[in-house]
Amino acid sequence: MPLKDILAALVVIVVWGANFVVIKVGVDEIPPMLLGGLRFLFVAFPAVFFVPRPAVHWRYVAGYGATICLGQFVFLFLAIYLGMPAGLASLVLQAQAFFTVAIAALVLREAVRPHHVLGIGLAAAGLALLDLGAGGETAVPMVGFLLTLAAAFSWASGNVVLKCAGPVRMLSMVVWGALLPPIPFLLLSAVFEGPDRIVDSLAHASWRAVGAVAYLSGVATLIGYVLWGRLLARHPVARIAPLSLLIPVVGLLCADWFLGERLGLWQWLGGLVVLIGLAVNLFGGRWAAKVREALRPS
Fold first, then answer.
1. Is residue 119 domain-resident?
2. Which residues contact 154 (CB under 8 A, 6 or more apart)?
3. What is d(CA 213, CA 4) in angstroms, rounded to the nearest whole number?
4. 44 in any annotated domain
5. DSSP characters for 184-207?
6. Residue 144 placed within a domain
7. Nearest residue to 149 (alpha-carbon basis) of 170, 166, 178, 128
8. Structural domain range at position 71
9. Number of domains present in the structure of the chain
10. What Cα–Cα distance (Å) separates residue 63 from each residue in 154, 174, 222, 251?
11. Residue 296 DSSP code
12. Cβ of 215: how many Cβ atoms within 10 Å?
């Protein structure tokens, strides 16, 4: 892989890993649904006037906006607002890899291999250990945990939408898909957070809140997805996809350094088991093939 692509991959890993800390900073000052509305409002505008519409049917653009943009971040922002630790959220969200396999099997009739089942089982055991560790220094509220899993399911659903859409320019999909979420986010904010809180949050927004919105819209969404899409276009998916395993590592470290989230032994053990499950899901087929080749009589 060329040096510039290695650097691009490192940028994406750091940007997306730190994203969870920025979300935590954002929801501490801006109500979560309002934060989501602002994030995608600034992703879509003014970029939509300069970026061409994706060359796919509108239903795929709407499906992407409804799942990866709206559904994922409604659940994720609310989970972190309700106390889900940012570092653990970055880890639990990676359950999207397993949900993607399951949804693709049901919708696209893609085969589920034994290593997928093993990986899912390991990840489920790791998530159970995270729940056992809820009494550690950093508590894991059950509602936040379940909302983060719902966010992972939404992300996975969006992955299948993209699979059905076929080849697409990711910058166009990100910008035009972001047209859908602002209105639902702002309606949810008006109903559940109230006009008074919206006005107060906007009128008294600190530099931290403004920076959080700018980071989430401009850096995590536009820069992150554009770089990631270019990497996937230039290199085999098998070479790029495993890099996502480093995102929760960065997320956990950033949460420790900047938010003081201290994990208990069971939580670290659960996180390790989840990462092993993710690795088995990504590499299991290749490992099994190498074992069969080594055992084959010469």
1. no
2. 67, 68, 70, 71, 72, 74, 75
3. 28
4. yes
5. HHHHHIIIII-HHHHHHHHHT--H
6. yes
7. 128
8. 3-93+140-259
9. 1
10. 10, 12, 18, 28
11. S
12. 21
Can you tell me the distance from the alpha carbon of 174 to that of 169, in angstroms, rounded to the nearest whole number? 9
Place of tokens 């970029």: 47
Walk along the chain (298 residues) and give the pLDDT tens digit of each residue.
Answer: 788 888 998 999 999 999 999 999 999 999 999 999 999 999 999 999 999 999 999 999 999 999 999 999 999 999 999 999 998 898 889 888 778 888 888 888 777 778 778 877 887 787 777 665 555 555 678 899 999 999 999 998 998 898 888 888 889 999 999 999 999 999 999 999 999 999 999 999 999 999 999 999 999 999 998 888 778 777 765 566 667 778 888 888 899 899 988 777 777 787 788 788 878 876 777 777 777 777 777 6
Are 44 and 199 in contact, with CB atoms under 8 Å apart? no
- The tokens describing 214, both together, are 């700018």
- The two tokens of residue 221 are 């969404």
Task: List, in sequence order, the alpha helices (H) in the chain.
Answer: 3-29, 32-44, 58-64, 72-81, 86-92, 96-107, 114-132, 142-165, 170-177, 182-188, 195-203, 207-214, 224-234, 237-240, 246-259, 265-295
58, exposed or middle or buried, with CB in 10 Å at 0-12, 13-18, 19+?
exposed
Say whether 235 sits in a helix, a strand or coil.
coil
pTM, two decimals, is 0.86
Query: 126 near 267, Cβ under 8 Å?
Result: no
Residue 181 lies in a domain: yes
Tokens 């992407």 belong to 64
Placement of tokens 């480093």 in the chain: 246
